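FORM 7B - TANDEM STRUCTURE REPORT

SECTION 1: FIRST PROTEIN
SEQUENCE AND TOKENS:
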Amino acid sequence: MKQNNMLAMILAGGRGSRLHDLTNKVAKPAVSYGGKYRIVDFPLSNCANSGIDVVGVLTQYESVLLNSYVAAGGRWGLDAKESGVFVLPPREKADSNLDVYRGTADAISQNIDFIDSYSPEYLLVLSGDHIYKMNYAKMLAHHRACNADATIAVIEVPMKEASRFGIMNTDEEGTIVEFEEKPPQPKSNLASMGIYIFNWKLLRKMLLADMKNTESNHDFGKDIIPTMLNDGRKLVAYKFQGYWKDVGTIDSLWEANMDLLNGNELDLSDPTWKIYTEDVTTLPHYIGAEAKINKAFITQGCTINGEITNSVLFTGVKVGEGAKIIDSVLMPGVEVEDGAVVTRALVADGIKIGKQAVVGSADSEHIELVAKRVKGVE
């Protein structure tokens, strides 16, 4: 393998139940984001940009769309000789009746044979449902410089929010001395990003032992990381500085899209670190003579004849005459008919909002998810 003998495994089997109707039939990593992307485009593009040639994508829940999407490794330049994206769903084996991944560690354990076929020195474990840009080669360099057994990427979060995360407590040199899962009174604000680099030989031994432990949750955060700490293994933190978002709720998905309008650190137009995605063949967007646009992210194929304010419009959205879109996210194929008003809402793929309909409210504490057709006013 080309990139320092490191293979990547992306955990992409999450149900994403807090995204409600958006994930009824689509795995969370396949949910649309940023006008034309899917969430899983980010870890896959990070791998490609970091020089990682072989990536396994571990799928499970509602995986049909996700499987077909990631199998086309050419989108990320991962279809050359000795490289590829490999879809790895749970498998029933002759010596067991398992056909699900019981936890994050178990997902890797069930694919030890796949990993062994490449004999990597290091294993990179990623989540498939976070939005960020990271050079994993720099993280590996830190891992090697520290002579670590495992390196965990961390990001500083506001102290008042730290209890929502797995928290890594470190010494002055950045060595992890304690891991706390969602502590009520956190000792630090270094939150785990769910990005790990392990020395494969050591992790392999630990996974085989974990598989035999009937009391284990077979999870990295609950079992593998604490065991490594208890065994005196060297775990180090890799501090990430940049944009990172776990889009676990409708509000956070809306916020992540709105962030694109606010000039934050996630630059999707950066030619040095491209985020690759499906190249949808569609017409250029069209802005009508009566249209008004104030701070908007508008993707190809959109037809705009109304008023757009502080909103993100995905591929193929249609906005009729006199319609107003305010502080909202409209996913692919949404149609808003003449005179309708959409405020502080996230409208799911292909939804139609009828004439003169009113959706959402500027005073609402939470973002309104619109996942069913809204009838118009006759």
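SECTION 2: SECOND PROTEIN
SEQUENCE AND TOKENS:
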Amino acid sequence: MPFFPKILFRSEVESFLWDVYNNAELVQKIGCAEAKRRFELLLSKLPHPPVFTTVRVNTLFTSVENAKKLLNEEIIKQFPGLNIPIFQHSKLHDLLLIPVIGPRRTLKQHSSQVIVGAQCGNAVLRGAHVYSAGIVSTSKWMKVGDEVSVYSDIEGKCLRGAKYFSESKVFIGNGISELNRNEIFSSSNPIKDKCIKMTEPVYLSPSFNNVLSDYIFLQNLPSAVVSHVLNPQPGERILDMCAAPGGKTTHIATLMHDKGEVIAMDKIAKKVEKMKSNASVLKLNCIKTFCFNSTKAVAEGAAADEQGGPPFLPESFDRILLDAPCSGLGQRPNMVCSLSLKEVTSYQPLQRKLFSVAVKLLKPGGILVYSTCTITLSENEEQVAWALRTFPCLQLQPQEPHVGMEGMLGADLSSDQLKQLQRFELSSAEIYEVDLCNPNSSAEDMSILANNDTIGFFIAKFIKKG
């Protein structure tokens, strides 16, 4: 099988998602057949990467044109003989679009095989090479220099160190082995280096490992939209409540010209260290990181940290980003989702707890942006409806830029309210028959295509009335 045609969900989760598209409000407007078509399109698109790889330029230290020039030189190095143009997004001017070529279904498959885990397989589909931590199995006699075919064990059935695996697997490309089999599976001296250099991936996309790391940041398109919607201003005090790994945090700091204060929190220490590293590489000084549980970020009376860290006094931030923990069902590529229905539906209470904290910490007149990378109603539009009922001080605001769709029907929000929301929905459009590598294509046309074929995402913007 050259490529997996549809994401694997547990049956209970697939039924839950079908109910999202089969809700009475939506079906009344578009009909059951169209709802079914959108749902099937969603399932078929999730295993594939978006049609563009998107990178954000660190505009504090280089121009978009210079970053584009340097990226073009790097792509020529990685793919000699190929002409892959780079486009600047027409509305997100700090975002560059690099076409993803594929799926290439006619690649020859080699007898020597490498089996990787599903997460590693997803990374390969977006341009990564294969590192030892992602390898589950290799052919018995694999040695340095061998041409190998790489497969993703999407169902997690392959035993680590197996010499042969015949069950369900998905071909994701060919590469050259840079280690012997015994080096990969050595328990006494585990190697964490690159093991397979991908030479013929099913999807051709540049590798960004240590590439222009102080000039660019690999970021999904909707994630870049979020910071623009927040619209941070120089000198303001901004809170990023669930910030790791820091992509949006560093974007916020860049948009405010590294002037002011960006507080970035996460409760996992390793992720906080990654945020610090990202801020350092991008030479951003206004970011302060804290390992702290954001549900406890509001100080009671004299409990506030005098050093400026959490917990914080109420109404102490000009703008707050709550990019909430979520079920992540909009992430691409994703060939299999192992979450149970209980896990998928467990995020709503946590999101509401975090939202309540955000409202307390926001100054009157301040801006709160709520976002997720999932496609459910319960974590998106239903949360907006709940917030508007629960906090009379909040008012929905229009978003700029607005390059996604409006909100989905089904949460008893008015038409005007839905228009103020922004949903990047994978079932919104068919994959266009467009020559992505035509350098004469207009940036506007390519931007529209990128807006309509990205990860699933949701954004809501509120103002706290005085």
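SECTION 3: OBSERVATIONS ON SECOND PROTEIN
The mean pLDDT is 93.
The longest strand covers residues 362-372.

SECTION 4: SIGNATURE
Preparer initials: ____
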